[in-house]
Design a protein that fits this description.
alpha/beta, eight-stranded parallel sheet, 39% helix
């Protein structure tokens, strides 16, 4: 990197953020997962990793909050072709189920095939992320829909016996096998709670769309799950509380080691217009950056992260990918500050 000019335009064909680091040179290793087969509203997030890669080459590499993350090396792996192929097969099976509002008794074979493919995806991602952790590097999963990080969180849970998950999302994602799909994007945190016992605390921020069953799940897991509803935050801010106070209060229950699971729809939908299930409300980009900064300032360690639900817009609109690329760079930068 001695001759690298961080202020120059990215070279054609360069890697993530215009960098050329090989995996062995990188401190942060990204795992793209082009999967969105069980998306329940608008598909397109399978194209998120490629769109973010393209947009990342326009991101300025000096960051006012995190300095020079690029100097420590960032590498994005090639997409796993088996996962992409599995996405195509699962999407074809899932489409008629989603179109009729969920599975019925006649869909058992299709559901079994989808579940098998998604178990394989989870295992592949878990193995990949475990390898990154074994190398002492920071792993980051780039989705795809929000079903994709289960294996990664499981890999972190195998290494860190008391793991916290900081979950930023418009949705609680605590539905049980939504529409019949065990590993639905709407069920990711239900699956984390069931399958990763090392997760001792799940802190949710930005939630503003959820069902009664999910509310009951939050109440039933009181202590392990702490949910901060966006409506409550907005009211408290309107009544004069400072955002930094709300953030610090929310982060307080987290243990030392934290995995960040960031669904882009946790942000205001003006920042993610093409995401699968946009919801009014949410965090500004600056508020998200403050949240990450306060997590780092608290002395906790970011052991990995996932960024999901970024989708390119129609007719090549790159706005969502530009926001996603910049949020990705922030996640990497803050994560590296804790190492």
């Amino acid at each position: 990197m001695s001759s690298f000019d961080p202020d120059a335009a990215a070279a054609p064909g360069s890697g993530i953020f215009g960098l050329t680091h090989a995996r062995g040179e990188a401190t942060a290793v990204l795992v793209p997962v082009p999967f969105d087969a069980t998306t329940s509203y608008r598909r397109g997030t399978a194209a998120g990793p490629a769109a973010i890669l393209e947009a990342s080459r326009q991101v300025d590499l000096f960051d006012l909050q995190t300095g020079r993350p690029y100097a420590r090396g960032i590498h994005m792996l090639e997409s796993d072709s088996a996962i992409a192929a599995g996405n195509d097969r699962c999407a074809a099976l899932a489409a008629p189920i989603i179109a009729k509002g969920g599975a019925d008794a006649g869909d058992a074979a299709a559901l079994a095939a989808i579940e098998s493919a998604m178990k394989d995806m989870n295992q592949r991602i878990q193995s990949t992320v475990a390898g990154i952790l074994d190398e002492g590097k920071l792993p980051g999963v780039v989705g795809g829909d929000h079903s994709v990080p289960l294996g990664a969180i499981a890999a972190a849970g195998a290494r860190y016996p008391s793991l916290g998950v900081l979950h930023v999302d418009a949705h609680a994602d605590l539905r049980v096998a939504f529409e019949g799909f065990r590993y639905s994007h709407a069920s990711i945190m239900d699956n984390v709670l069931r399958e990763v016992p090392a997760v001792t605390k799940l802190v949710q921020i930005g939630v503003r769309d959820f069902g009664e069953q999910e509310l009951r799940a939050i109440e039933a897991n009181a202590g392990r799950v702490v949910t901060h509803f966006d409506l409550h935050w907005q009211r408290r801010l309107a009544e004069g509380e400072r955002l930094v106070e709300l953030i610090d209060f929310a982060l307080a229950p987290l243990p030392e080691d934290v995995w960040i699971s960031f669904d882009i729809d946790g942000l205001d939908p003006s920042l993610c217009r093409s995401t699968g299930t946009p919801v009014p409300g949410g965090l500004s980009f600056s508020a998200a950056c403050l949240l990450l900064a306060r997590l780092v300032e608290s002395g906790r360690r970011i052991v990995g992260f996932d960024l999901d639900e970024v989708a390119p817009g129609p007719d090549g609109d790159s706005w969502d990918a530009n926001v996603g690329a910049r949020l990705l760079y922030k996640l990497i930068g803050f994560g590296l500050l804790t190492r």
